[in-house]
Amino acid sequence: YIFGAEILAKIPSMIIFLLVPTTMVRAEITGTDIFSLFVKMVYFMDEPNTLFPSFHVLESYILLRTLPLLKKAPRWYKKMTPIVSPLVIFSILFVKQHLVVDILGAIAVSEFGLLTMKIAFKLWAKRRNISAKSGNTKLRANVKIKPNSLSCETE
User: Residue 82 contacts by C-beta under 8 Å, 6 or more apart in sequence?
Assistant: First the structure.
């Protein structure tokens, strides 16, 4: 359901990009130290348009919010995501890629996608007369939900 939530969050984002295109005027980087070169590289690779809502934040936030759902994720992933995701979110402010409003917009569309998928999954489970609990839950119709999957198999 994570992938579906991400797609549902990106649809309104793309509509916003088309209807209300945003850009940011960046300051010229004049330094020659390693950090200035890094910021120049970021500016070169990531143009200052389609800013609201931030896809950097959308991706990082959804990964962070859905981490408890990932039962089979590697241990390193579960330990690093709570560290790396906030760093990504804050770094886009520090290198002047986005504004705080871009972050808030990304969180809002992410929550929209997550909530919509949660409701859709519950409705799907209810229509099929199965338990909406995740994991290896045995279902009332002798059906098992595969972990982290929307597919089912009958016994």
Answer: 64, 67
CA dihedral 132, 71, 13, 85 (to 10 degrees): 150
| pTM metric for this prediction | 0.75
144: exposed, middle or buried (Cβ count in 10 Å: 0-12, 13-18, 19+): middle
> CA–CA distance from 108 to each of 55, 99, 113, 144 (Å)?
12, 15, 9, 33
Provide φ and ψ at 154, rounded to 5°: -90, 155
Least confident of 35-44, 101-110, 121-130: 121-130
Whether residue 145 contacts residue 137, with contact meaning beta carbons closer than 8 Å, is answered with yes
Residue type at 114? L
Average pLDDT score over residue span 11-39? 90
Predicted pLDDT at 51: 86
Cis peptide before 53 (omega within 30 of 0): yes
- Other Cβ atoms closer than 10 A to 19: 7
From the centroid of its chain, how far is CA 153?
A: 29
pLDDT of residue 8: 94
